[in-house]
Amino acid sequence: MIIGSTRGGFADALRQWRTRRRVSQLELAVRAGTTQRHVSFIESGRSTPGRSMIIRLAESLEVPIRERNELLLAAGFAPAYPHSDLNDPQLAPVRAALDRILHGHLPYPAVIVDRHGDLVSANAGFHAITRAVDPHLLAPPASVPRILLHPGGLAPRIVNLDEWAWHIIDSIQAENARNPSDRLQRLAAELVGLIPPRPRQLSSHHLGFAVPLRLRTGDPDNPELRLITTLTHFGTATNVTIAELRLEAFLPADETTSAALTELVTR
């Protein structure tokens, strides 16, 4: 269904996304199964693409589906992807699946977050390592990056905060560069003000993103948890809400941590 004509807005938006992805008109044309001439005509406003072509171009540029809806609207078409509240009865099977994933990861911490890093759901493992976090940080909407790096959160317990915290900042900034968001930009700026300056010289043990999160426990028998993280997104989702969810799972980097997490969760 065509709902209006804003051809210039679509042409500008498509060019911005192509520039942001650093893709040439020729490369985009090859990915989308069209010609460079056609892409050039679309970006100049000389050609009006159909709905299917807009979706192909957006998919070829890996545009998030929320923004694909915006591209369709800019071209005068109705959105193609539904945007439901997570509590919608139609998403009950998805919520059940997410709960199973979180439960299945126990005793290790895991969370579901939205596109801004706000906590959607967490398992008992995550609650166990955040028991001493200031309650206001856990009040909805609770930001997982803020919980990790705020002085009232886990930051005072992170042994390697000066190095590890910058992984969080860099990840947020990279996501904001890829898919711009005022909220992500503000969050990154806030967190930069909370953590130590970026080390000018990294330690000889620095392994980039492979460096574990080292977390003090206060337990003399198991004084430190060593955790590595994985991030999973729901890449085949066609609902905006589901597509924007991320699963962040913490895994033990050694057997001592595995045993300590098991004990923490069962207390």
UniProtKB/TrEMBL annotation:
Pfam families: HTH_3, MLTR_LBD. This is XRE family transcriptional regulator. InterPro entries: Cro/C1-type_HTH (IPR001387), Lambda_DNA-bd_dom_sf (IPR010982), MLTR_LBD (IPR041413). One of its GO terms (molecular function) is DNA binding. It comes from Phytohabitans rumicis. It comes from the Bacteria. SMART domains: HTH_XRE. Residues 14-68 form the HTH cro/C1-type domain. PROSITE patterns: HTH_CROC1.
